[in-house]
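Duplicate of #3305? Posting structure anyway:
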């Protein structure tokens, strides 16, 4: 089978198309013929992890170190990228009950990656579900990571109908899912993003969109029940006046400073900092599938690239010009 492989850290040019052995599913695994994979920030980081210093890493040092050990200090230990995917079940192990040959599926691999290949094996109890029939493989491949990260965040703060929610970083994988999920829960949503992605965030259903290059949301006098900061681009100090008396500053990515702030504000009856480590579970995978089928979550694909142009796909994502998701197509989608 063909796979997009990298043997050294570096620019998108380290990605090469190679022949690899086709995997064989174990008794509890399914063999998936992959049709589409996304290109997300995790792929960019893993491809050049040697450049991700503790200060650049989006989480505390205590989490950076095991991640660096996992991906490799001097050269990659994980040689095939691809965290989220969609494809067709080609074979199942003898103990598999959830899936059968011919099922269309979508799922999330996390840091295990490996989806940038024509075939992939996954345990049937992994983060995988039947693909919603109302979307394509390409659309399905860009949904799992964002939805499975945003869902635990919003559940953690018990988001309520009628609340005013601001999402800082609304155009990325997590942010775009958070916009749609907050709307699903009945919130009034404001999305913050850059100029090229204003239309994209509006299309996701945001009630209001702020261009951070032209307006500082912390200075416009609006207050919110919840401010979700996806990549820790702002701070509690800056956002405090933009929170209602019992408002929450929620972080998807955080450092130890924010952890200490969470401990300090947890004793307060007023504004709070909350840091959340999202843990994916099958219940959220199935909820995501249901919401997609109901039209509550949609995917907007900006560009598609074949396997042979994987490096170009990475360069495009790194350019910052994408307005939606970027997909690498593996074989012929139907």
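Output from current build:
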């Amino acid at each position: 089978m063909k796979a997009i492989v990298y043997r050294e850290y570096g620019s998108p040019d380290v990605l090469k198309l190679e022949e690899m052995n086709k995997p064989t599913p174990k008794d509890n695994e399914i063999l998936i013929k992959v049709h589409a994979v996304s290109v997300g920030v995790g792929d960019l980081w893993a491809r050049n992890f040697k450049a991700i210093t503790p200060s650049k890493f989006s989480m505390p040092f205590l989490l950076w170190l095991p991640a660096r050990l996992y991906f490799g200090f001097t050269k990659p230990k994980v040689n095939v990228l691809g965290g989220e995917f969609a494809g067709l079940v080609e074979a199942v192990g003898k103990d598999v009950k959830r899936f059968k040959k011919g099922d269309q599926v979508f799922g999330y691999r996390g840091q295990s990656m490996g989806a940038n290949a024509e075939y992939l094996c996954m345990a049937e109890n992994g983060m995988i579900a039947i693909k919603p029939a109302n979307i394509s493989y390409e659309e399905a491949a860009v949904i799992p990571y964002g939805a499975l990260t945003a869902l635990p965040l919003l559940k953690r703060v018990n988001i309520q109908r009628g609340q005013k929610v601001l999402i800082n970083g609304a155009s990325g994988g997590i942010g775009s899912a958070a916009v749609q999920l907050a709307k699903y829960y009945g919130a009034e949503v404001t999305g913050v993003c850059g100029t090229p992605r204003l239309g994209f965030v509006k299309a996701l259903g945001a009630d209001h969109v702020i261009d951070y290059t032209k307006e500082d949301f912390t200075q416009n006098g609006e207050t919110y029940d919840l401010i979700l900061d996806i990549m820790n681009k702002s701070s509690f100090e800056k956002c405090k006046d933009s929170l209602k008396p019992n408002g929450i500053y929620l972080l998807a990515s955080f450092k130890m400073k924010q952890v200490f702030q969470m401990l300090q504000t947890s004793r307060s009856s007023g504004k709070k900092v909350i840091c959340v480590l999202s843990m994916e579970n099958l219940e959220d995978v199935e909820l995501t599938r249901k919401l997609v089928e109901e039209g509550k979550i949609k995917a907007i694909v900006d560009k598609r690239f074949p396997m042979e142009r994987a490096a170009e796909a990475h360069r495009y994502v790194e350019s910052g010009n994408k307005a939606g998701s970027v997909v690498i197509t593996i074989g012929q989608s139907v």
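Confirmed duplicate; merging threads. The longest helix spans residues 144-156. The chain has two domains: 2-143+299-329, 145-275.
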